[in-house]
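Researcher: We plan to redesign the surface later, but first we want a full-length starting point. Tokens attached.
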């Protein structure tokens, strides 16, 4: 953290406040900060920090949808998701930061392209077959643990496959993200990944995350949902490219 230049530190503050303002106002956009921050902060340090930020932000936003949470669905997901977390912890421990960065770059760029394709209406009505559900929950645990983000994509595939209601989708996804962050946080602690630098970085980032959510609650963007989602997709694609070249 001390190695960041004033310009890099200012960049991180802007990314944190903007991304969590988007999440606070729309419920979407927080995960886009991970690849942007990874451009200046090593992933080995950033991923544990992001886990703590995910727990904090999810707890902040969880209240209004808690009555729609499906505990039966969470209990159904946890076994395969836990296996994915175990694999993710092993890979996170043995892979170096450069390889992790390139993997995250490929993942977010691929997702950005896929999301843009979905928005064009191609395949918009296609539903994942039920057999995808277990694989998706496993990948949510593994990918979320390796990269600290993107698990929500696979949880969304899971819930699409089993046709949950809109209310259950929002509330259960919030609960799942918080649960996953807590479980993998325990895992990171067990393998010694919560170092002094990560904890200091979390303490420095927390006020800006809370500020972003506070602003998001009070800001109603004039940008349409379609334009907003296209903008986020473009950011993901563009931020993933330099990560793949690191």
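Model: Full-length starting sequence:
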């Amino acid at each position: 953290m001390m190695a960041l230049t004033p310009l890099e530190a200012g960049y991180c503050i802007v990314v944190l406040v903007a991304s969590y303002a988007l999440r606070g106002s729309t419920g979407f956009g927080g995960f886009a900060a991970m690849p942007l921050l990874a451009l200046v902060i090593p992933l080995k340090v950033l991923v544990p920090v992001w886990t703590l930020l995910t727990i904090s932000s999810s707890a902040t936003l969880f209240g209004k949808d808690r009555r729609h949470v499906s505990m039966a669905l969470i209990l159904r997901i946890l076994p395969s998701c836990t296996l994915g977390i175990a694999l993710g912890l092993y890979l996170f421990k043995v892979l170096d930061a450069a390889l992790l960065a390139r993997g995250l770059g490929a993942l977010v760029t691929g997702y950005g392209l896929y999301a843009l394709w979905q928005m064009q209406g191609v395949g918009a009505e296609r539903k994942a077959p039920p057999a995808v559900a277990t694989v998706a929950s496993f990948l949510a645990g593994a990918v979320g643990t390796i990269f600290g983000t993107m698990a929500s994509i696979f949880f969304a595939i899971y819930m699409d496959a089993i046709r949950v209601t809109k209310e259950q989708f929002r509330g259960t996804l919030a609960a799942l993200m918080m649960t996953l962050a807590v479980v993998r946080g325990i895992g990171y602690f067990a393998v010694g990944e919560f170092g002094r630098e990560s904890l200091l970085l979390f303490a420095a980032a927390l006020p800006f995350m809370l500020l972003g959510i506070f602003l998001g609650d009070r800001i109603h963007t004039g940008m349409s949902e379609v334009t907003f989602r296209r903008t986020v997709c473009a950011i993901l694609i563009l931020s993933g490219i330099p990560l793949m070249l690191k």
